[in-house]
Design goal:
The protein contains eleven helices and ten strands. By secondary structure, it is an alpha/beta fold.
Length: 285
């Protein structure tokens, strides 16, 4: 028998504490008590949380190894009228954790997806970093090999901005050394075990943080915030910027104005280069 979309259950994306159990919201507790089923990354870990709050809702596994196939099964349950909550071991589902495939499949099937917001290591570390937050990029975990990590960091250096990274404690020292090599002795914030008993925040230049961690055997989740300033533009950058702007049909005068602003260079310097480009075009014609 086909069930009308209006009789579908709902999918609740529920954030759970990243450490301190007091960070569980009142709404999250209520939702987990009221749904028919909870899909959890690690059922044993989640049952400890549920027991703490007196929640007896059935739990099923939903993790990165069964995410693709299990999402089909779970959405079918929702389409049969059951309400489902998805949780991860810590924080918000879908943020470097399983969840997005289930959300995508559910939404494609006409299921209402409801966010129950709460703790997230990403926003938590950003809120205490004291770095620009009008625009930022979350890059997740850095590559594990040094060679790939250096290439990854080189791309960040070119992009510039505020970046949030995750790292494992055993790779932290090597990652910091690569950051110093590729990014220079930039300022950063390294947060460890956020909201937990042994929470620690290290701030300063990369070299100073390296001195703090190199002789220690660290444990726990690591989150890093680094703000990278755009490298000063030189005369060699002007020609490429102008040519790309002119290629879009922008008049030369307007292209000079935009390029000067984008590169942070004097307008007369950019205009001089523009005249050289124009003279070259006339000569080659």
């Amino acid at each position: 028998m086909q069930i009308e979309a209006g009789s579908y259950g709902k999918l609740y994306v529920v954030a759970t504490p990243i450490g301190n159990l007091e960070d569980m919201t009142i709404r999250a507790v209520r939702v987990l008590k009221e749904v028919d089923l909870i899909a959890a990354e690690d059922t044993r870990h989640t049952r400890k949380l549920l027991t703490h709050y007196g929640i007896s809702t059935p739990v099923t596994s939903y993790h990165e190894h069964n995410e693709l196939g299990k999402s089909v099964h779970l959405v079918e349950k929702i389409k049969q009228g059951q309400d489902l909550a998805v949780v991860t071991d810590a924080g918000t589902p879908g943020i470097s954790d399983p969840g997005y495939r289930l959300v995508r499949r559910a939404s494609e099937c006409g299921v209402e997806v409801v966010a129950v917001p709460g703790a997230s290591a990403l926003t938590a570390v950003l809120s205490i970093a004291g770095m620009p937050t009008d625009e930022f990029t979350f890059k997740g975990f850095m590559p594990s090999s040094s060679a790939k990590r250096r290439s990854f960091l080189a791309e960040l250096r070119c992009a510039a901005g505020t970046f949030i990274l995750y790292e494992s404690p055993r790779r932290l020292h090597g990652a910091l050394e690569d950051m110093r090599l590729i990014l220079g002795d930039v300022e950063l914030v390294v947060a460890r075990e956020m909201t937990k008993m042994h929470e620690e925040t290290m701030r300063g230049r990369v070299s100073a943080v390296i001195d703090q961690v190199k002789a220690r055997r660290l444990k726990g989740e690591i989150a890093i915030v680094v703000s990278i300033e755009k490298e000063p533009a030189g005369e060699d950058d002007i020609e490429g910027e102008l040519e790309s702007l002119i290629a879009t049909g922008i008049p030369l005068k307007e292209a000079v104005k935009i390029a000067a602003k984008e590169l942070g260079l004097p307008k007369n310097l950019v205009y001089k280069k523009a005249l050289e480009i124009k003279a070259k075009e006339i000569k080659d014609a």
